[in-house]
Amino acid sequence: ALSPPSGVSLTTLFVLRADGWTVPVDALPLSYRFFTLDTAGSGVRSTLGTWASLTLKTTLPAGSKADGDRLSVGVEVSDAFGASSDRLAEAFVSDSLGSGEAALDQLKQKTE
């Protein structure tokens, strides 16, 4: 699960949860690797972190401008034997700086 579904890069605190995974007791503990997918569509994963906790609170990078600020985020869950599975979700993360023109306008307003 991902909350909130949209926000601003490097500003909004997103919560990613890996609920609902069940394994036999002898396959515990589970580990959780949270990641984003490259916005260029190459399938390259950028790891946000690996934890024993099923929840991660973090900011995210901006999504793809060409795809309406869409960013694919996911979690890979692994058991003690190395078996793993992953799940993806989509967030809409706008650039914290906005367009270059908008950033220049903001800078001009501060210096006037």
In words, what does this structure look like?
With 112 residues, the protein is mainly beta. The chain has a single domain, classed as Immunoglobulin-like (Sandwich). 11% of the residues lie in helices and 42% in strands. The protein contains one helix and eight strands. The chain has one helix at residues 100-111, and strands at residues 2-3, 6-8, 14-17, 31-37, 45-51, 55-58, 70-78, 84-94. The strands form two sheets. The protein has a five-stranded mixed beta sheet, with no helix packed on it. Strand 7 (70-78) and strand 8 (84-94) form a beta hairpin. The longest helix has 12 residues, at 100-111. It is elongated.
Shape: elongated
Gyration radius, rounded: 17 Å
Strand content: 35-45%
CATH class: Mainly Beta
Largest sheet: 5 strands, mixed
Key phrases:
112 residues, mainly beta, five-stranded mixed sheet, three-stranded antiparallel sheet, 8 strands, 11% helix
Short recap of the structure:
The chain is mainly beta and 112 residues long.
Question: Layout of SSEs?
Answer:
Blueprint: E1 2-3, E2 6-8, E3 14-17, E4 31-37, E5 45-51, E6 55-58, E7 70-78, E8 84-94, H1 100-111
Parallel strand pairs: 2-8
Antiparallel strand pairs: 1-3, 3-6, 4-5, 4-7, 7-8
